[in-house]
Amino acid sequence: RDDVLSNDLRPDQVRLEGKLGSGQFGEVRRGMCYLTSRSNPVPVAVKTLKNNDPAGEKEILSEASLMKQLNHQHIVRMIGVCKGESLMLVMELAELGPLKKYLEKNLDIRVWHQLELMVQICDGMRYLESKDVVHRDLAARNVLLVTDHFAKISDFGMSRMVDNSSAYYLAHGPGRWPLMWYAPECLYFHKFDSKSDVWSFGVTMWEIMSNGSRPYDRKKPQQILHFIESGNRLNKPRNCDDRIYEIMLQCWEFSKEDRPHFQLLKISLEELYREFLRLQI
Ligand code: ATP
C-alpha cells in the first residue's frame, strides 16, 4: 500500500464534480486535479469507493499499482491515488466515455473509422502484451473515447501480470467474469494470457462492427460454451467486409497457439484501415 501511495495526491489537490458512471465498488466521478500549486487544474476521472469497503480498497490499490507501470497513448493513464475520506483512483479523463455507448448512438459510423478505432485498441493491447500484462476485461464498454478518433483502454480491475515461468495467469474462479468475451481455456482451466485477450479483442471487433450489440444474443454461459465447442462462432455482422470478419475468426481459433499476436493483428488491421480510408468507405 505504501508503495502505491508513495506518489500520492493530497485530498486538497482533487475536486470532485458530477458522476460519470458506476462500478462494482463505487462510482466514477468527473473532477479537477491540481497537480502543482502554480499550474492550471486538469480534468480527471476519479474512481471512488462506497462505504470504504475493504474488498474495494484492495481492488483499487491493485488496479493502481498495475496502472502505475503503464505508459501508452492508447491506455488510460493513472494520475495518482488519493486518500481523502476514502480511497480514490485519479485517472486522465476520456471525455466522450465508453465506446459501446458511442457505437449505439452513431449508427452511421464509417468502416474506416471503425478500423481506425480497432487499430488503436490493438496498439494498446500490443503494448500490454509486450509488458506481460493480461487485461482480462477487454470489451467495448471498457474502451473509452477521448475524441471521436482517439480510443483508450480502461478498467484494469481484473488485469494481472503474467508469471514469467508459467507464461499465464491462473485465476481463482469465475467471480463476476465477462464470459461472453472469454476464450475456451479461460472458461475451462481459468488460464489467462495475451492470447486470451486476443479472443476478447475479436469479440470487441465484433461489437464495433455491430453497433455495440450484445454478443450471443441472450444465450446462457453453458449454451455459449457448447456453441463454441461445436465449432460455431459469432455471426458475421451485417455489411461487414469479409476480410474484417476473417480477422475476427483468427482471434477465435480454439487453440490459442493458432491465434495471432497483437503485433501481427495490428499490421493486418492497419493495412485494411489505409485501404478503406483511401476509398472513404
Ligand atoms: P465494472 O464493475 O464494470 O468493472 P469498474 O468499477 O471497474 O466497473 P470502470 O468500468 O472502470 O469501473 O468505470 C465505470 C464507468 O465510469 C465507465 O463505464 C465510464 O463510463 C466511467 N469512466 C471510468 N473511467 C473513466 C475515464 N477515465 N474517463 C471517463 N469516464 C470514465
Q: Residue ranges: pLDDT <50 for 5 or more in a row?
A: 1-6
What letter string, H or E per element, gives the SSE order? HEEEHEEEHHEEEEEHEHHHH
Terminal residue distance = 50 Å
Helical run tally: 9
Mean model confidence by pLDDT: 93
Tally of DSSP β-strands: 12
Spell out which ligands are present. Answer: adenosine-5'-triphosphate
Largest β-sheet summary: 5 strands, antiparallel
> What class, by secondary structure content?
alpha+beta
- Please report which band the strand proportion falls in: under 5%, 5-15%, 15-25%, 25-35%, 35-45% or over 45%: 15-25%
Binding site for ATP: 20-28, 47
Active site: 137 (proton acceptor)
Protein name: non-specific protein-tyrosine kinase
Domain Protein kinase: 14-277
Please supply descriptive tags for the structure shown above.
five-stranded antiparallel beta sheet, alpha+beta, binds adenosine-5'-triphosphate, non-specific protein-tyrosine kinase, disordered N terminus
Could you please describe the fold and organization of this structure?
This protein is α+β, with helices and mostly antiparallel strands and 281 residues long. 37% of the residues lie in helices and 19% in strands. The protein is built from nine helices and twelve strands. The strands form four sheets. It has a five-stranded antiparallel β-sheet, covered by helices on one side. Strands 6-8-9 form a three-stranded antiparallel β-sheet. A hairpin with a 3-residue loop joins strand 4 and strand 5. The longest helix has 20 residues, at 111-130. The radius of gyration is 19 Å and the shape is globular. The model is unreliable at 1-6 (pLDDT under 50). Adenosine-5'-triphosphate binds next to strand 1 and strand 6.
